[in-house]
Write a structure and sequence with these properties.
Elements lengths: L2 H48 L6 E4 L2 H4 L16 E7 L5 E8 L21 H6 L13 H17 L4 H15 L14 H6 L27 H9 L21 H4 L33 H5 L8 H13 L5 H8 L3 H12 L37 H4 L30 H4 L23 H4 L5 E6 L2 E6 L3 E2 L3 E4 L3 E3 L1 H13 L5 E3 L21 E3 L11 E2 L7 E9 L2 E8 L5 E2 L4 E4 L3 H25 L1
Parallel strand pairs: 11-15, 12-15
Antiparallel strand pairs: 1-2, 2-3, 4-5, 5-15, 6-14, 7-13, 8-10, 9-10, 12-13
Helix pairs in contact: 1-4, 1-5, 10-12, 11-12
Bound molecules: S-adenosylmethionine.
S-adenosylmethionine (SAM) binds next to strand 5 and strand 11.
């Protein structure tokens, strides 16, 4: 076949694939629309039968109004000419009447929806300001389009045998010609149409000719690439080691890369013979510390199975300085063999700390991120914790005995407990004297979920929390829990809650002045806030003690295994909170300043609106 005819054949195939794809697209779109409207009708009829008054109203913006450009800012006079037509339906779906109402046009470029749209006092500009810096994703493939494309791909591949490569080409061509945003099937192991679809619960569309979904080869890291496998796997879990949630949505920030730095091979800090200094007592597994000098130089390990070598090699990349006695247990080998193999693999030179492996992005350090680098946590290693003047915590990748880590207490006596003084709960891994591991220690209340029974009932300011029994001073009443908000969400919620004069947001910014120096900056959630409006426990009903009450409680921000949490306790200064008394705490002047300012602004806005109308 000549070169020209080969080209022609390829062109012909592309053209027929394109026609086929267009045809399939048309079919799938028609089937999907039919399914969707049947689905919507079913929903609507269930609403009618439930007799919901809302179901008899529908809103529609007349089409000619959609053409008008949105006005740059709040357009109170509706100059852009946008109207909303309100149609009233009876229970048979017949229109009873229709009225046209002018609508305000906001340049809502970023906000998904506007709260209190009918309330002229809502601070729209302030609310929209909090969305600054966000933008639409231009090439977003909508969820409906994704379902349609997935089905098109399935039919092309299963019914017509088109290869994944050709499908990619023809989808691109079709998308470009018809201006349909599209994804290629696989862009990386974490992006592309197939990956996006695998992340969703697809709607249960009943396609006329449903087959099993296509299986396209997915790429996995090379089985010999230990770090590739670890780094692919760790993304499935929450980076916070205290959390056991897979695909956790609470602790994972938008900046995954920074929050969970990939694991990298560690450089050994000790020469093999220097490991002898780390052994106090020889282990019972043919301990290397008992080897004669001659035997130490013998590096013939002929009898060692290959699988043992492979396992040890992998572990040495992650923990090169682990004691041979411990490694021997993990690898099911004798301690002497571990020692000899380590010597063979890593040599016997004293290692100097390697150059910086982790380049940290300083501009993004607002969020808490654990440190991850080789060598000790010092200025030479670009250690994030060192730079931020904070302690290393459990999520950091440094050794357990890193000097920047809080050492834990070695005391069973509460006034002497270093952890209490530093506003930390005792650490089950470090505080052995008080037996924190088995939760015998009294400084583990938040970890144990300890709380006091609180009665919730009407108070002077809406609902309030009341002591259900006499409470001794210093008693942990409970933990202030709710949704963990990032700064941006916090700003948005704050505007809404202040407007409603009901605010359940509690910040982590404040820290008691006597706290450990690590307190102000460190913590997995430093800089975040807790919002108890929609989720919480009875501590959300503690009102403010203004004017000063005799039974004020205190809020303490406590470190629990590297995370900041909010404990509410009865004040140390007071003898006892009696049964039936209202439990209150001080919200702080700032809280009320914000709320009052807002109330004043609202009043002024009403007055201005009224004057303008007149
Ligand atoms: C965390 S909530 C407390 C529970 C609230 N009373 C309820 O009914 O859900 C805080 C809100 O309670 C009200 N509040 C609490 N203490 C108050 C006080 N001393 N004076 C006026 N309002 C107060 C305010 O509306 C405030 O935004």
């Amino acid at each position: 076949m000549s070169v020209e005819s080969e080209d022609e054949a390829a062109e012909h195939e592309t053209r027929s694939n394109l026609e086929l794809t267009r045809q399939i697209y048309d079919d799938v779109r028609t089937e999907f629309r039919a399914w969707k409207s049947a689905h919507a009708r079913m929903k609507l009829s269930s609403l009618y039968s439930a007799g919901s008054p809302e179901s008899t109203k529908k809103f529609r913006i007349p089409e000619h109004c959609l053409d008008s450009p949105p006005s740059p800012a709040l357009d109170t006079n509706c100059e852009a000419g946008a109207w909303m037509q309100v149609l009233n339906y009876d229970s048979n779906g017949t229109i009873i009447d229709s009225t046209a109402q002018p609508i305000h046009v906001y340049n809502v470029k970023y906000a998904a929806f506007l709260p209190f749209p009918e309330d002229p006092n809502f601070p729209v500009d302030l609310y929209l300001d909090s969305f600054e810096g966000l933008q639409w994703i231009d090439d977003l493939v909508g969820p409906d389009e994704e379902v349609i494309q997935f089905e098109v791909v399935r039919r092309l591949h299963i019914d017509h045998g088109v290869s994944p490569e050709d499908i990619d080409g023809v989808l691109r061509l079709c998308g470009d010609q018809e201006h349909i945003p599209h994804l290629s099937l696989r862009e990386s192991h974490e992006s592309g149409l197939l990956w996006a679809v695998s992340q969703r619960d697809l709607p249960d569309v009943i396609w006329p000719r449903r087959h099993s979904p296509p299986h396209f080869a997915r790429s996995f890291p090379d089985p010999k690439d230990d770090f590739g496998i670890i780094n692919k796997g760790i993304r499935k879990f929450c980076p916070n080691l205290n959390c056991i949630q897979d695909n956790c949505g609470v602790h994972v920030s938008y900046d995954w890369e920074l929050q969970t730095p990939p694991f990298r091979p560690k450089e050994p800090l000790y020469a093999s013979t220097q490991l002898l200094a780390l052994v106090d007592d020889p282990c019972e597994n043919e301990c290397f510390s008992l080897l004669s000098e001659d035997a130490m130089d013998d590096d013939s390990l002929d009898d060692l199975p290959v699988s043992h070598r492979t396992v040890l090699n992998s572990i040495l990349k992650v923990e090169p300085d682990m004691r041979p006695c411990e490694l021997a247990v993990i690898c099911e080998m004798t301690c002497s063999n571990v020692f000899l193999l380590r010597k063979q693999v890593l040599g016997d030179d004293v290692k100097t700390p390697p150059p910086n492996l982790t380049k940290t992005k300083k501009s993004k350090l607002k969020l808490y991120a654990p440190c991850a680098h080789s060598g000790p946590c010092s200025s030479t290693q670009a250690c994030l914790c060192f730079e931020m003047h904070r302690r290393c915590e459990r999520n950091c990748q440094c050794d357990d005995n890193c000097v920047r880590r809080f050492p834990g207490c070695n005391s069973t006596l509460s006034p002497k407990c270093k952890c209490r003084k530093a506003f930390r709960e005792c650490d089950p891994e470090k505080c052995t004297a008080c037996n924190a591991r088995h939760l015998e220690c009294t400084n583990t209340g938040l970890q144990q979920g300890a709380s006091q029974h609180i009665a919730v009932r009407e108070s002077k300011y809406g609902l309030g929390a009341f002591a259900a029994k006499n409470l001794e001073k210093g008693t942990l009443i409970g933990e202030y829990v709710g949704e963990l908000l990032r700064t941006l969400q916090f700003e948005q919620r704050h505007v809404i809650q202040k407007h409603g004069h009901l605010n359940y947001v509690h910040g982590f910014f404040v820290c008691l002045p006597t706290a450990d120096s690590a307190c102000s900056a460190s913590g997995q959630n430093g800089g975040d806030t807790i919002d108890a409006q929609w989720l919480g426990n009875p501590t959300r009903f503690l009102n403010d003690s203004k004017p000063r009450s005799q039974i004020a409680k205190q809020v303490v921000h406590i470190f629990v295994n590297g995370e900041k949490r909010i404990a509410i306790t009865t004040s140390e200064g007071l003898e006892q909170s009696v049964r039936g008394a209202e439990l209150t705490l001080s919200y702080g002047e700032q809280y009320w300043e914000g709320m009052l300012l807002q109330a004043k602004d609202d009043k002024n806005a009403t007055r201005t609106k009224a004057t303008t109308k007149r």
